[in-house]
Amino acid sequence: MYLVQSKAGAIACMLFSLFFLGTWPALLTFLERRGRLPQHTYLDYTITNLLAATFIACTVGEIGKSTVEQPNFFTQLSQDNWPSVLFAIAGGLVLTLGNLSTQYAWAFVGLSVTEVITASITVVIGTTLNYYLDEKINKAEILFPGVGCFLIAVCLGSAVHASNAADIKEKLDYFSNDSKNGVGTKGVTNSKQTNTDTVDTHDMENGVASEVKAKAGTALFLIEVENKRAMKVFGKSTYIGLAITFFAGVFLALFSPAFNLATNDQWHALKDGVPHLSVYATFFYFSISSSLLATILNFTFLYRPILNAPKSSVTSYVNDWGGRGWALLAGLLSGFGNGLQFMGGQAAGYAAADAVQALPLVSTFWGVILFGEYRRSSGRTYTLLAGMLIMFIVAVAILMASSGKRK
């Protein structure tokens, strides 16, 4: 099997992983905002996510001659390595619970803030655990200041969400007052801004589209998005979204340490003479458990949806081809992104590999470009957003600088 040996190779894996893992959440958010049910999207995502892991295991995991110390993927399937397999399965289970939670959190608090908070919690908890599991191969004097920067980013992310929620409320309140006074819509951005968009409010109430397309960030734009999306979030408490986000972050913080235990057996659970589970075999078992739980939960959510999502059925899911290609692509990106993260982590330490949690930098880019997040927001929101992203960039640079080399 092929193993990444150098620090440069490990960092290259992390950078590709960063792009993939930062892009797939944007694709799922894109579909939810256009009315596709989260249950349908995640079921499609799960299929290609598992296919990606299987492809990596059967190709890269089979490169080169199998040895006693480093057996190839198929050889390990028949070995007595069940303690490590159970750690891999546990990692897959917590990853699914975290990813499913973030899928609903995106609807409530937006792509950018969700990814920043969950990624930062993942680093604060997961990186600390990985540092000790990896026998401190990463430089603590560099690593933990980076972890502290991620923690500051969590606080700033929460502040960004609160500020943006206040901006949205102000836009909608101003829009409502104008409509009642017969002014029509002004596409309000805040109490000091207007634009030239106009619309007959009677047409809007009857679902007729405006002749003039609403500008991103205006009240009319927000209403149009709300009308299209699968999950309706207007009027919901902002604390619901933040609670789901923090819940997701805790689960996502545990999957990397579980994967670390599966591949390196720090607790000496394997019998003498049994080789450690390879990163590819671990990823395969990890992905099977993740996909199985995701399938069970999402089939359940078709008939018993959570957070007021619409009901569906297996028949409706099978016939729902709108956006299926994007959902399948998201699964591939996530699968290859996770695989590259683990390959880099096995070489340079899983604590350093948590630098891929910089994925909010990519997600925020897509959030602004694709969804118009933070358009026409207040100066306060822009200041907090800039501070959050700068702190994130600093944290990632510090974390990558702490990379070590596994013996």
Structure description:
This protein has 407 residues and is mostly helical. The protein has a domain at 7-119 and 231-371. The protein is built from 15 helices and no strands. The chain has helices at residues 7-32, 38-59, 73-76, 82-109, 111-133, 140-180, 201-205, 219-228, 238-264, 279-303, 314-319, 324-348, 350-353, 359-371, 379-401. Helix 1 runs parallel beside helix 14 and helix 5 packs antiparallel against helix 14 (359-371). The chain is globular, with a radius of gyration of 23 Å. Keywords: ATP-binding, Membrane, Nucleotide-binding, Transmembrane, Transmembrane helix, Transport. GO terms for molecular function: allantoin:proton symporter activity; ATP binding; uracil:monoatomic cation symporter activity.
Supply the key terms:
407 residues; mainly alpha; 15 helices; globular; membrane; Ureide permease 4
